[in-house]
Write a structure and sequence with these properties.
This protein is mainly alpha-helical. The protein has helices at about 15-40, 50-70, 75-80, 90-115, 125-150, 150-160, 165-180, 185-205, 210-225, 250, 260-280, 280-285, 300-310, 345-350; strands at about 115-120, 240-245. A two-stranded antiparallel sheet has the order 1-2. α6 crosses α7.
C-alpha cells in the first residue's frame, strides 16, 4: 500500500501535530455529546437523529476550522479540511456514490441468490416524505464521519506519523468505535478496518472528502433506503422499504446487517484497488510534486545567443563606413622669401 506524501502544512513538527491530533479527537467526543443532548432538547424523538447529525456536522466543521485557523494559521480552514468546492467536486462525489452503490449491490446479490430478501413496501404518501428526511440523515451521517475521521484530526495524525501510519491508526480507531455497537462481531471489526482504509485512500489520493463521502453515503443509504436492510444493527431507517434477508448468518450478518459479514470484508478488499485505480487522475492533479526553482537564475536565451555569436560571429550589421569621394586638400603653402646668392644684405632690402 502506497500513498502520496502529504503536503507539509504550516505549524511545526511531528510532536506538535500529534498533540493537535489528540485535541481534535477529544473535541470529537465533546461535539458528539453536545449534539446528542441539544437534539433531544430541541426536537421530538422522530426528528432527533436527523437534528443530531446536522448539529454534529456543524460543530465539527466549525470547531476544526477554528483549530486550523488558530493553531496552524490556515487560510480557508474549511477548504483545507477537505471540503473544497473546487472544479469537478460534484463529479468526485458522484463517482463515490456510484462506488458505494456498486459495493452494496455486490454484497446483496448473494443474499438474493442463496436465500432471498423478503421486501415489504409502504405506499403511504407520508412514507415518501420521511424517505427524504432519511436520505438527508444518511448524507449528514456520512459527512460527519468523513469530517471526524478524514478531516483535521486525521490530517494532523498523518503529518505526525505519515500517510500509511495515519490510515492504519484511524482504521483501528474507527473499528474500536464500531466494536462498541450492540451486535458487533469479529467480522464487523474486520469490515470496519477495511472500509476505513478505503475511505482514507480516497482522501489521500484526492486531498478532498468528496469521493470518500460519496462511498460512505452510497454504501449506507443503498442498503437501508433501497433494500431495507439493517445498517450497523439498525433496521428502522427506511419508511418505504423493509427487507428481511433469508439465509445463513455468515451471509446475512443477522440483525447487524451486511456490516457484520466476512463476505463484505472480502468485497471491500476487492474494491480497494478499484478505488485506487479510479482516483489515479485526481492523485496526479492534487498530489503531483510542485517543482521549485533553485540555484542560480540563468537566462537560457541570452546564453544560447552568446554561444552562437562566439561560434559564428555577431549577427548584428556593422555601422555605415565613411566613403572618401575626393582627396581632401592640404594646407596652402606660404611663400618664403629666398636669399640672393650674391650681393650684400642692403640690396635685399631694396
Amino acid at each position: 500500500m502506497s500513498f502520496s506524501e502529504p503536503v507539509s502544512a504550516p505549524g511545526g513538527g511531528r510532536i506538535r501535530a500529534y498533540f493537535q491530533f489528540i485535541i481534535a479527537i477529544c473535541y470529537y467526543f465533546v461535539a458528539h455529546l453536545l449534539a446528542r443532548h441539544a437534539a433531544q432538547g430541541l426536537v421530538g424523538p422522530e426528528w432527533s437523529p436527523l437534528a443530531e447529525q446536522a448539529m454534529l456536522v456543524f460543530l465539527l466543521v466549525l470547531g476544526y476550522a477554528a483549530m486550523g485557523a488558530w493553531m496552524d494559521r490556515q487560510r480557508g480552514p474549511i477548504r483545507v479540511q477537505g471540503l473544497d468546492a473546487r472544479a469537478g467536486w460534484t463529479s468526485e462525489a458522484g463517482m463515490g456514490l456510484a462506488l458505494g452503490w456498486a459495493i452494496a449491490l455486490v454484497c446483496a446479490i448473494p443474499l438474493v441468490v442463496v436465500g432471498g430478501i423478503a421486501v415489504v413496501l409502504a405506499t403511504q404518501a407520508s412514507a415518501w416524505g420521511w424517505l427524504l428526511a432519511d436520505t438527508a440523515f444518511f448524507a449528514l451521517w456520512a459527512l460527519a464521519e468523513e469530517v471526524a475521521f478524514r478531516g483535521y484530526g486525521f490530517q494532523r495524525f498523518v503529518q505526525s506519523v505519515g500517510p500509511v501510519g495515519g490510515a492504519l491508526g484511524f482504521a483501528a480507531f474507527y473499528a474500536i468505535l464500531q466494536a462498541l455497537l450492540p451486535g458487533s462481531s469479529h467480522a464487523s471489526v474486520a469490515v470496519s478496518v477495511v472500509f476505513s482504509l478505503i475511505l482514507s485512500t480516497a482522501y489521500l489520493r484526492t486531498r478532498a472528502l468528496w469521493v470518500s463521502w460519496g462511498i460512505n453515503f452510497g454504501w449506507k443509504a443503498s442498503r437501508a433506503l433501497l433494500l431495507g436492510l439493517a445498517v450497523s444493527g439498525v433496521s428502522s431507517h427506511s419508511p418505504v422499504v423493509q427487507g428481511d434477508p433469508m439465509g445463513p448468518f455468515w451471509l446475512t450478518g443477522g440483525g447487524f446487517g451486511l456490516d457484520g459479514t466476512w463476505l463484505t470484508a472480502l468485497v471491500f478488499l476487492a474494491a480497494w484497488p478499484v478505488v485506487y485505480r479510479l482516483t489515479r487522475d485526481l492523485d496526479y492533479e492534487y498530489n503531483a510534486p510542485v517543482i521549485v526553482a533553485g540555484g542560480i537564475p540563468v537566462d537560457l536565451d541570452a546564453a544560447a545567443k552568446q554561444q552562437h555569436e562566439a561560434a559564428m560571429g555577431s549577427a548584428e550589421p556593422a555601422g555605415p563606413g565613411l566613403v572618401q569621394i575626393m582627396p581632401v586638400p592640404g594646407p596652402v603653402p606660404v611663400p618664403v622669401p629666398m636669399r640672393a646668392e650674391t650681393g650684400d644684405e642692403s640690396e635685399l632690402g631694396k
